[in-house]
Amino acid sequence: EVALGQTPGCSNSLSVVTNLNPQLQRLLFALFLGMYTVTVLGNLLMFLLIRESAALHTPTYSLLKSLSFLDICYSSTVVPQTLVNFLKVISSLGYVAQMFFYAGFTTSECYLIAAMAYDRYAAVCHLLLYSAIMSPGVCGCLTVGSYSAGFLNSLIHTSCIFSLKFCGALVITHFFRPPVLSLSCVDTSLCEILLFVFVCFNLLSCTLTILVRFKAFSTCASHLTAVCLFFGTTFFMYLRPRSSYALTQDRTVAVIYTMVIPVLNPLIYSLRNRDVKDALRKALGRKRVE
C-alpha cells in the first residue's frame, strides 16, 4: 500500500509514504533489487555489445540497442524509487517526475517495437532494397520519432493528472502507477477521456503497424515473444473497463511489464540470435587474448 498524506482540503501537493508489513517490505526489496540488477546488467551488456561489434552495426541492431537503452531507462524510473518507497517518504515532485519519465519511456518503447516490425518487414519482403529502405537516416528518424511520440504523450498525460486537486488522507494500493484520477476531489471525466484517447491511439497505431507487417515479423520468434509480452500486458492494464479492475491482477501485471519484461528482453534477443551470440564469443575471445 502507498499512502498519500495531506492536510484537510484540496491541494495539488502530494506526499507519498509506504504502508507495508516490514517482513513483506524486506522480501520485496530483495526481489526487486535482484531483478533490477539483472535488468541493468543484461541490457547494458546488449547495448555495449552492439555498439562495439562492427558486425552488429546495422539498422536492426541499432533499433535493438535503443530498445536495451529504453529498458534500462524505464526500469530505472520505477524500481529505484520503489526501493526507496520501502524506506522513506517520497516527495510530490519526485512522484511527478517518476510518472513523467516512466510514461515517456514505456510509450517510446511501444513505438520502437513497431519500428522494429517495419525493419523486419523490409528485411524479409524487400531484401534487395533493404539498404535504401532502412538507411541510417531512416533508422535515426524512427528512433527519434519514437522518443518524441513517447514524451509528447507523457507530457500531456502528466500535466492532465497533476493539474487536478487532491484532498484528504488518501491511501492507494498499487506498486507503481496508482489510479491517481480516482483520488481527485474534482470532476475528472475530461481528463479520463483525454488520457483514454491517447492510450488508445498509441497502442492501436503501434499494434496495427505490427499486424500489417505480421507475416515478416512472425518469422522471428524472439521479436514476436517480446511483442506479445509487452503489448499483451499493456492492453490488459489500460484498455479494459474500470469495473473489471482487480487489485491483485493489477499488481501482478504491473510487475510483469515493469520488471519482468526488461529482464527477459536481453535473453529473448540474445539466446535466439546467432549474430549476437557470435559477437559475444568474439568479444570474450578478445578478452582472453588480452
Task: Bin the helical content.
Answer: over 70%
- Assign the CATH superfamily: Rhodopsin 7-helix transmembrane proteins
H and E order: EEEHHHHHEEHHHHH
Mean pLDDT reading: 76
Number of domains: 1
Question: Major beta sheet, specifics?
Answer: 3 strands, antiparallel
Rounded to an integer in angstroms, the radius of gyration calculated over CA atoms is 21 Å
Question: In total, how many beta strands?
Answer: 5
Envelope shape: globular
Total helix count? 10
Strand content: 5-15%
The CATH C-level name is Mainly Alpha
Helix/strand-derived class?
mainly alpha
- CATH architecture verdict: Up-down Bundle
CATH topology: Rhopdopsin 7-helix transmembrane proteins
Head-to-tail CA distance between termini: 51 Å
Residue windows where pLDDT falls under 50 for at least 5 positions: 1-18
Q: How do the strands line up in the largest sheet?
A: 3-1-5
Family: Belongs to the G-protein coupled receptor 1 family.
Protein name: Olfactory receptor
Subcellular location: Cell membrane
Membrane topology: Multi-pass membrane protein
